[in-house]
Amino acid sequence: MTELAKTANPQTDDTVDRLLDDFDHQSADFALHWAEVYGKARANQCPVIHSDEHGGFDAILGYDDVVAAFRDWKTFASERLLDENGIEMEGGVGIPAHVFRIGFLEMDPPQSLNLRRLCNPWFNRNTIDAARPRLSEIMHWAFDNVAEKGQCDVVTDLVTPFQCVSIMDLLGIPLEKWPRYKEVVDQEVAQEESSLEGMQWLLADIFDEIERQTTEGGHGLLAVLASSELEGERLDPELVTELILMFLLGGMDTTIATVGLAVRHLHDTPEDRARLQESPDLIESFVEEVLRFYTPATGMGRTIRTPTTFADQCYERGDRVYLAIASANRDERAFDRADEFVIDRSPNPHMSFGTGTHHCIGSEFARSNTQLFLTTLLSRMPDFEVDVAAAHMVTSIPHARSYLTLPISYGPGRSFGSGDHAWPEFKTDPIRPV
Ligand code: HEM
User: CB of 296 within 8 A of CB of 261?
Assistant: First the structure.
């Protein structure tokens, strides 16, 4: 049954109507019924859903509107605006707003582009393609740690160590720190009260690392940023700290989420799993469809910079809007059979990485790691079965749809010998721009 077909049930219909009336993209109920809620609003020709939560905002639903808003940074600001008294208004890309600014994700051109240009070479397709041996080595280390056990958790044992170590390696941060870094990032993303203390530790640790690498050098992006100049001035170490934090926040959970959603889909849909096993070349279109259909990063906030009429609504400076990527990705006007998972969909112009000036800088990295991971899972643990009863999804995180835990069992395989270390012992070259 497609997710939308569930609205045929009157009880579900009531729930959907209630969720439309009291719209809150963060509520646990919405996390269960998001496709029906957005589907019903679009079917009723509603271009936006208004919410009184989090200070009040409009969720923009249609594919064309979401694309247009992403591309119009002059009207839809990612940066935090000042009011007429020069005081910063609630803003940025989080609804509710993040406590602190998140690097160039929460700036606008020209500032955002000047900083982004320094980082682009580390994330472009050629660099990521050339990094495959290194990324494979990290991934096999994660698989080797559990290959002989016959059971493990895809999220906590496999993809989390793989993705976190990959990013820390690209940034050039000592790898033994990855478990503590991930813990703090999780607290921050979940907006837990304990996050403040952890965040203070993390920011201080990144700051110390910047100071150390400014004198001693380093192999990753952190060292490059620490010695970079803009308009003849060295980047302030506090700004570099903010940028490193942005990469940690943006790059860890989103890819982990995508892999979790893909693994669960393969478990639930044996015909797609069989097709992928028969035709491994389908991996690229499969991953794109996972990104569209499940939409791990569900939406982004913006602040109206200049009064405008958009999606049939009038907006004033300071109004907050939420670009509902998850809705755009299921818009029937943009995608045939939008509520069906089509493994070889082509073209697939999903909005899961956004578009325009803030288009995800890590999209090639995320695609490559997700494809690499799933191909390896299907070859090293081809008979894996998810323990569905023990799998838990995150229900309260504002912008991500992901599994907290996803246990699997499989016929025990061979470790290739890199296993049982807290982090991999590398034989390949570090990731570096080509
Ligand atoms: C499947 C995984 C990922 C998804 C779904 C995702 C999603 C997104 C989206 C929707 C945006 C646009 C934000 C906006 O317009 O406000 C974005 C931007 C960004 N992402 Fe990703 N992302 C993923 C992986 C990554 C990775 C692996 C990294 C880094 C290692 C990363 C770093 C960033 C950064 C730094 C930005 C800000 C770009 C800018 O403002 O110019 N992301 N991402």
Answer: yes
Classify residue 46: in a domain, yes or no.
no
Q: Is residue 417 situated within a structural domain?
A: no
Query: How many residues in total does the chain contain?
Result: 434
Q: Is 372 in the pocket of ligand 1 (CB under 6 A)?
A: no
Q: What is the pLDDT of residues 111-150, one digit of tens each?
A: 999 999 999 999 999 999 999 999 999 999 999 999 999 9
Tell me if 26 is assigned to some domain: no
Is this model's pTM higher than 0.90 or not? yes
Atom of ligand 1 minimally distant from the CA of 163: 27
User: Measured in angstroms, how far is the CA atom of residue 105 from the centroid of ligand 1?
Assistant: 8
Mutate to test the pocket of ligand 1, among 114, 135, 360 (most ligand atoms within 8 A of CB): 360
CATH number, domain containing residue 362:
1.10.630.10
Domain count of the fold of the chain: 1
Q: Which residue has the tokens 């393969």?
A: 266
User: Does the CB atom of residue 352 touch ligand 1 within 6 A?
Assistant: yes
Are 32 and 5 spatial neighbours (Cβ–Cβ below 8 Å)?
no
